[in-house]
Design a protein that fits this description.
Oligomer: single chain
Order of helices and strands: HEHEHEEEHHHHEHEHHEHEEE
Bound molecules: adenosine-5'-diphosphate, magnesium ion
Helix content: 25-40%
Shape: globular
Structural class: alpha+beta
Number of helices: 11
Length: 327
């Protein structure tokens, strides 16, 4: 059995509370936005059995819940400020689980520079659910929009695509062909990518300065890029041979060619899709390089064309389902 609700808050969450959260002893927190800047707000919910496995380490669940929100902030060009945590736990959850969850949360909150402003703690007869609302800031009027691209803009994807979706495949089919044939270090790399995303916080400033549009890849590269472009009335000839994959993902796709569509459509990458005006492209790439994350050019946005994905031979690839949808 866990401690009481108030003891949980005092013991687990108050130590990482922001000064404006009054030790989590008040009904609400207060926050003065930095002068001349806008707040950027985002929320992501994680449900056991849907976004993570109930048996995952509690510290990893907490860190993933925070990191998926950090990924949204980075995509909007926002510098992190803080977050709020809603958590629904089974009555019989053991206190050790909650302590480990809080420790993971505290570690990431410290390393990414976010403070906890409050939340809610409830019991549930359903699956563990973690809901984080994060906020950051950008120069006034400067949030980078998802649908801000124009015809002629250059399109980039950061980092590498596919590891997390392939890691999920390994979790779902632990005795499958992929799990059996993949080298242990590649298996570990893919499993780790699924368990613990690496949000591109280091690129937020580059996105804010140079991007005309951006979003993070949470539901799948193909579907998310299609959303970003078609929502703006644009299309593109997207070069799949320019989409970077890690050595582990390449090894997986060499075992089974069909895994390419898992990598491209699977999601949970938390990389950034970025459009820049042509004149900003070099500066954007240089800023990403300086931050230690590659930005790969994958095509140009265009008017009056569909979003098409073409392989190295120029053949169009059709993906029946470009991204994950809950419904
Ligand atoms: P209420 O009575 O309005 O439901 P609570 O007693 O639940 O408020 O919460 C008291 C304080 O503890 C509030 O400041 C709230 O933001 C904070 N709090 C509750 N749960 C959490 C949580 N999971 N993480 C962070 N802060 C929390
Ligand atoms: Mg209250």
């Amino acid at each position: 059995m866990p401690l009481s609700e108030f003891e949980i808050i005092a013991r687990c969450f108050a130590p990482i509370a922001a000064p404006g959260a009054f030790g989590l002893l008040d009904d609400a927190a207060s926050l003065s936005p930095p002068p001349g800047r806008d707040l950027v707000l985002t929320k992501d919910m994680l449900v056991a059995g849907m976004h993570f496995f109930p048996g995952d380490p509690p510290a990893a669940i907490a860190r993933k819940a925070l990191r998926v929100n950090l990924s949204d902030l980075a995509a909007k060009g926002a510098e992190p400020i803080g977050f709020m945590l809603g958590i629904a736990l089974a009555r019989e959850t053991d206190q050790g689980w909650i302590d480990a969850f809080a420790a993971g949360l505290a570690a990431d909150a410290a390393s990414y520079g976010l403070a906890l402003f409050g939340g809610d703690t409830v019991s549930t007869s359903g699956p563990v659910t973690v809901s984080i609302t994060a906020f950051g800031s950008v120069p006034a009027g400067g949030m980078v929009r998802r649908l801000g691209a124009s015809a002629g803009d250059r399109l980039f994807v950061t980092g590498r695509i596919g590891d997390a979706a392939l890691g999920l495949r390994l979790r779902l089919e632990p005795e499958g062909e992929l799990a059996r044939l993949l080298a242990p270090e590649h298996r570990e790399a893919l499993l780790e990518a699924y368990l613990l995303p690496q949000p591109r916080t280091a690129l937020a400033a580059a996105v804010q300065r140079h991007a005309s549009a951006a979003m993070d890849v949470s539901d799948g590269f193909v579907g998310d890029l299609t959303k970003m472009l078609s929502g703006a009335g644009l299309g593109a000839r997207v070069r799949l041979d320019r989409v970077p994959h890690s050595p582990a993902a390449q090894a997986a796709m060499a075992i089974d060619r069909d895994l390419e569509s898992v990598a491209l459509c699977g999601g949970d990458d938390y990389e950034l899709l970025v459009a820049t005006p042509p004149g900003r492209a070099n500066d954007f790439v240089a800023a990403c390089d300086a931050a230690g994350v590659p930005a790969s050019p994958i095509g140009d946005a265009a008017e009056d064309v569909a979003v098409r994905f073409v392989d190295a031979e120029g053949r169009t690839r059709d993906f029946t389902r470009g991204s994950f949808s809950h419904f």
